[in-house]
Amino acid sequence: METNPVAILDGNTYVLSDSRGDIRPAENTPLGLFSFDTRYLSRWELWINGEALDSLSVDDLSYFETRYFLVPGAATHYVDTKVSVLRRRWVGESFDEEIIVLNHDWSPLDLQIRIDMASDFMDVVQLRQSEAMPRLGTARARAVDGELRLSYERETFFRETIISTSTPAEVDEEGMTFTVRVEPHGKWHTNLQVQTILRGARGRDVRANLAAHRSRRRPEMSAALDDWIRSAPRIVAESDMLSNTYQRSLVDLAALRYSPFSFKERLPVAGPPWSMSFIARDALLSCLQTVPFVPQMCPPTLKLLAIGHGTVVNDFRDEDPGKILSEIRYGESAAFEEQPHATYYGAADTTPLFVVLLDEYERWTGNTELVHALEYETRKALDWLDRYADLTDRGYVSYRCRSERTGLRNQCWRNSPDGVSYRNGTLPGYPLASCEVQGYAYDAKRRGARLAREFWSDPAYADRLEREAADLKERFNRDFWVTDREWYAVALEADGSQVDSLTSNIGHLLWSGIVSEERAGRIAELLMEDRLYSGWGVRTLATDSRRYNPLGSHTGMVWPFDNSFIAWGLRRYGHAEAAARIANGILSTAAFFEGRLPAAFAGYDRGLTKYPVTHPAIGSPRVTASGAALLLIRVLLGIEPREGTCPWSRPCRRAWAGSSCWTSRAAGAGWTPSAAAGCPFRTEPSTVPAGRAGTS
Questions:
Q1: Does the model's pTM come out above 0.85?
Q2: Given this model, what pLDDT does residue 643 score?
Q3: Which is it for the CA torsion 130, 131, 132, 138, positive or negative?
């Protein structure tokens, strides 16, 4: 796999290349031009006089645009090179590249410039599985009227790549060749455009009449990015790294949005290379992380999830009435139901998180209209918790994959096959009730009660939900508490057996509020012990567990998003110093990645590596990692919504080295936190009127 692929993206159209700008076929390497879960280019290689090029530098201009500075041949040729090459590319529904060849010699140069082009039209889901799947469609490559047309067709599924150039070229079925003369100290250039086509039943691109999918030009995209950043609160800090991380996170959040078919608003996508589609868990969590900063992410997310809520019992899709979906895919395997992911419901946590987000959004913005509009779907979601989610008759939300051939085994955030295990390494059976999902359900019932009482004029329903939440909390603290270890089990099996491993999930329990007050201190201690806390952040699994692996996604790695909710939970229960320690550790990793928080990194002790070690299979940027930066800043400042006025702030004493000043520019969520006496944060008054907020 390319260790550090260069990525540019716009929505779910994205390009991953090597440091030369080339896309080369290689085993298990997800390089290419991708859109709507299909790889439209699997080869895009530039040659000059038969030589490959070598990279001098890569200029990361914006999330949708980059430049590569190159020379022909190996690095030993640099001293006497007479030719240099600039590749400038950008995406905006289509993919465009400008190639400039510069002659640094006193004599003219005759050059043959070749670009090899191909597409395998692989489904991203199948590409990730690394399995040689038989292709049941027909692939074609045609040179037509100066264009190269690559296509794949299987019954009604038709994808096409159309490549054109601004200067004459010899076009064949494997690429384009330019035979040129570059005058002394002159230059030659061409513009290449790559269109990605999704043809429908009538032979037209299904996006042709959708305004949300028209091609956007660079000035328009730059202006939209500027507007996005201006809409967020501004942070000024003595620490440049903190300011840069905040700014970089806002840019990444803007980049990681797209519009599905038949939905004009832009929604969060999880992140490249495998999840540039709508993954509901990532969308919900990132909205929760960022609602005080960019609340405009929330309404489209909530509305799409409401539209797509389950209506029938469908085992293939793990669907139930009222259940909130897990993901939406558009690839070949989804189209022919070889995978259930066209609209898949295999997640136990998205349904309670939907209710939690709706309430949190209203608290910050006072948007009661959305609360009223989504009343029916919210009631259905709360009903699902009791009517369909309890698979063991023990009163807990549990899961079991019903789409046995291709569905997800673990349907919580620890969704790898070994993500949930006993301390001795044994894998549990199913149905399984994951601990943090019970916390989410508890929080959903409490928040649902507030919505019912304050906005739906249904106090009886509110009373019922509050009783159910109280009962759930009491039972949970009895059944999940591992008495001899003094921590909460990560899950319960169907017979009530406690899956007794120590995991980061206990921090999510603090965030949800389901932890009893007398046990919160013990949970805070465990989170900061060496077996969980690496010095950078909290590991997913304790080091004394048999399956612990510092490079395992859910068996030892550190996830910034996970830690952001842990820090939020610690702060909720009054453990501000521990919350600040986690926030500082996670935020400090951004300095190693040009201001960007990694999606995840190895669970090695900080004293061993001195820098966070990332895993090449976990891509970046990730929407929940970008959201984590904002939530951790919120935790450090202690910002919470407050009824009818600006939010209040209780900054952590050890918040960050250097003072910070906040001033709001968000018209829909104007706020400026007040600073506690003696804290390292300064504030300025905001001239923007505050929106209504609820009590946290």
A1: yes
A2: 63
A3: negative
Q: Is 670 exposed, middle or buried (0-12, 13-18, 19+ CB in 10 A)?
A: middle
Alpha carbon distance 12, 35 (integer Å): 6
Task: Let me know: does 635 contact 583? Beta carbons within 8 Å.
Answer: yes
Strands 660-663 and 682-683: parallel
> CB–CB of 170/114 below 8 Å?
no
Distance of CA 476 to the CA centre of its chain: 30
The DSSP bridge pattern shows strands 138-144 and 147-154 to be antiparallel
In contact, 243 and 237? CB cutoff 8 Å: yes
Query: What's CA 148's distance to the chain center, in Å?
Result: 34
Quote the pLDDT of residue 663.
45
d(CA 643, CA 190): 59
Nearest to 355 by CA among 213, 459, 456, 481: 456
Tokens encoding 433: 């009730």
Tokens of 209: 């009449």
Residue ranges for the chain with pLDDT beneath 70? 1-3, 26-29, 74-80, 130-133, 200-216, 643-696
Would you say 63 and 252 are in contact if contact means Cβ atoms under 8 Å apart? yes
pLDDT at res. 367: 94
Q: What is the pLDDT of residue 693?
A: 30
What is the reported pLDDT for 216?
A: 67
């019922």: which residue's tokens?
464
3-state secondary structure of 290: helix
Per-residue confidence (pLDDT) for residue 420, from 0 to 100? 96
Query: What residue has token string 């070749």?
Result: 114
Assign residue 443 a region (left: φ > 0; alpha: ψ between -120 and 50; beta: otherwise): alpha
| Chain Cα centroid distance, residue 194 | 26
Q: CA-to-CA distance for 363 and 642, rounded, in angstroms?
A: 8
* Amino acid 630: pLDDT: 97
Computed over its alpha carbons, how large is the radius of gyration of the chain?
Answer: 26
Judging by DSSP bridges, how do beta strands 147-154 and 157-165 pair with one another?
Answer: antiparallel
Count how many residues are written for the chain.
696
Here the tokens at position 107 are 């004599």
pLDDT at site 511: 98
Confidence at residue 215, expressed as pLDDT on a 0 to 100 scale: 61
The one-letter amino acid at 369: E
Q: Measured between alpha carbons, how far is residue 212 from residues 106, 215, 252, 261 in Å?
A: 50, 9, 20, 9
Quote the pLDDT of residue 610.
Answer: 84
**Peptide bond between residue 321 and the one before it cis (omega within 30 degrees of 0):** no
Burial (CB < 10 A; 0-12, 13-18, 19+), residue 510, is: buried
Which H helix or E strand runs over 630? helix 623-637
Residue 91: strand pairing partners: 95
